[in-house]
Specification:
This protein is an alpha/beta fold. It has 15 helices and 20 strands. Bound molecules: 6-O-alpha-D-glucopyranosyl-D-fructose and calcium ion. This is Oligo-1,6-glucosidase.
């Protein structure tokens, strides 16, 4: 176990560059802004930075629509700025991982321009083209080659008037899917990745990488009650050639750097069984995957924008299944937040003044004590909250804007649609990083591209660095614990109190060490009838979120443990 890969004991920090730090006052975060804020990340103690896309892009989906894979968008800076950032990150002993978006390009990428402009060019086949459905004329309602809906509302097919053919776009119309069946596409992607590795980057977070292989028959998918489009996911989630493509990528790109890299596949809809195949080191595909089960548990019958309250037992059941499923083979990624999810303290915690700090720290404790590699999304380490968006004009995200337009056009109540966006919309995670209490939270001297959360006056990094009881210092301690206690990295996971709707409890056992993680994920006092409460009586308290006198649990032998609102603790016995 001593020869385990370095990333098993690492913590990754995700930067959404547009919203992190603006160095030139244009209201958009940029690379020099990041370089100027590395002290914050060193103080937190993270090992790896993952940058959301900074390549040239029309920014239809905030950079997830790439028009040049080997450059930097002028809004973010230059390749020189990038090299400078990379050197500064390395000088601090951290690594840098790029976002790799190769399921699709921008429709403004030269490859797609050529494919559209010259249907006879070899580039045509780099994308997915199909004629209208038999018996239909191009452009007629229902003429789309399949009934698949796009992730961003509407059909997944867009008509190209000039040729009368449709191209596939699982995301926006400006994000045409690449045709991975074509070996030239795969070779171009490999070459581009090798170019970044030569430049010195330390790996890739691979966007929707389990969607790149499609069933070439493009069959219609099931249509849910009242849905305008079918669900094509059975025909593109972990499609027929996905493992072949990833093994080829490993051979062609990753294999030359056996120790250095971190590769993580973002995989909507992936099952535990598939994830084990993807991350089995013997199969040489990726190091770990992002799975989505736990962030779908509060989606309601009407989909993600129709959220329902989370049942804690559902969360525990799900995460435990993933812990067990990847215990012997493979590896987990652990996350609550990223740029696509609402803020966890608002979603699963309580972001009101009474409980914000303790619910944020309790949730952090639960996540970081699981087995796997934790990811911290910018601002999560401050307990940043969802944003008080007043009206649709406050939103910027294409998914939210498209959903609103489609839902309202279909007759939905606008206020109700807005309520869904406020609860679950991706812009909640995209408001600027809250550095200090000054105007625009110290993010920019100009006008920010999206509103700053007004709570930055009291919720900001400067205040939290100065306060040992802050969310920031709690995250710092959790990260340090992973670096120093092998049981956090390697320990076997066992869930306790599986039926409890308020308490999250588990142990991690490694050689002679056992950790107990106990969290009250509710705003009321709770009693924990732990199977072996007395056995933990004199255990060492490692990370807690309430100041308690003494080093031992203050509980009476033979009595259940009492946990205060949102109290969490990590205990160790040997
Ligand atoms: O938020 C979602 C839409 O409901 C997710 O399904 C999301 O689209 C999915 O997780 C894939 O996300 C990734 O690829 C998208 C991009 O918009 C996201 O920001 C990115 O993380 C397309 O590139
Ligand atoms: Ca800027």
């Amino acid at each position: 176990q001593e020869e385990d890969p370095w990333w098993k004991s690492a913590v990754v920090y995700q930067i959404y560059p547009r919203s992190f730090a603006d160095s030139n006052g244009d209201g958009i975060g940029d690379l020099r802004g990041i370089t100027g804020r590395l002290d914050h990340l060193s103080a937190l103690g993270v090992d790896v930075l993952w940058l959301s896309p900074v390549y040239p892009s029309p920014q239809d989906d905030n950079g997830y629509d790439i028009s040049d894979y080997q450059g930097i968008d002028p809004a973010f800076g230059t390749l020189d700025d990038f090299d400078e950032l990379l050197a500064a990150v390395h000088a601090r002993g951290m690594k840098l991982v790029m976002d790799l978006v190769v399921n699709h390009t921008s429709d403004e990428h030269p490859w797609f321009r050529e494919a559209v402009g010259s249907p006879d060019s070899p580039k045509r086949d780099w994308y997915v083209w199909r004629p209208p459905r038999p018996g239909f004329a191009a452009g007629e309602p229902g003429a789309e080659p399949s009934n698949w809906g796009s992730f961003f509302s509407g059909s997944a097919w867009q008509l190209d008037e000039a040729s009368g053919e449709y191209y596939l776009h699982l995301f926006s119309r400006k994000q045409p899917d690449l045709n991975w069946e074509n070996p030239q596409v795969r070779h171009a992607v490999h070459a581009m990745m090798r170019w970044w590795l030569r430049r010195g980057v330390d790996g890739f977070r691979m966007d929707v990488i389990n969607l790149i292989s499609k069933d070439q028959d493009f069959p219609d998918g099931p249509v849910a009650d009242g849905a305008a489009h079918g669900d094509g996911s059975p025909f593109y989630v972990c499609g027929p050639r996905i493992h072949e493509y990833l093994q080829e990528l490993h051979r062609e790109v990753f294999a030359a750097h056996p120790e250095r890299l971190l590769t993580v596949g973002e995989m909507p809809g992936v099952s535990v069984e598939e994830a084990r195949l993807f991350t089995d080191p013997a199969r040489a595909e990726v190091d770990m995957v992002f799975q989505f089960e736990h962030v779908g548990l509060d989606h309601g019958p009407g989909g993600k924008f129709d959220p329902k309250p989370l049942r804690l037992t559902d969360l525990k059941t799900s995460l435990t299944r993933w812990q067990q499923g990847l215990a012997a083979t493979g590896w987990n990624s652990l996350y609550w937040n990223n740029h696509d999810q609402p803020r966890v303290v608002s979603r699963f915690g309580d972001d009101g003044p009474a409980h914000r700090v303790r619910s944020a720290t309790a949730l952090a404790t639960v996540l970081h004590l699981h087995r796997g590699t934790p990811y911290v999304y910018q601002g999560e380490e401050l307990g940043m909250t969802n944003a008080p968006f007043a009206a649709i004009d406050d939103f910027r995200d294409i998914e939210s804007l498209n959903h609103y337009a489609h839902a309202v056009a279909a007759g939905a109540d606008a206020e109700q649609v807005l309520a869904g966006l406020r609860a679950i919309g991706r812009d909640n995670a995209r408001t600027p990083m809250q550095w200090d209490a000054t105007a625009h939270a110290g993010f920019t001297t100009g006008t920010p591209w999206i509103g700053v959360n007004p709570n930055h006056a009291r919720l900001n990094a400067a205040a939290q660095l100065a306060d040992q009881d802050s969310v920031f210092h709690h995250y710092r301690r959790l990260i340090e614990l992973r670096h120093t206690e092998p049981a956090v990295v390697h320990g076997d996971f066992a869930l306790l109190l599986p039926e409890d709707e308020h308490l999250y409890a588990f142990t991690r056992r490694h050689r002679g060490t056992e950790l107990l993680v106990l969290a009250n994920l509710s705003g009321d006092v709770r009693h924990a009838a732990l199977p072996d409460a007395d056995g933990w009586h004199r255990a060492e308290r490692l990370v807690t979120n309430y100041p308690l006198p003494g080093a031992y649990l203050t509980h009476t032998l033979g009595e259940p443990l009492t946990l205060r609102p949102w109290e969490s603790l990590v205990l160790r016995r040997t």
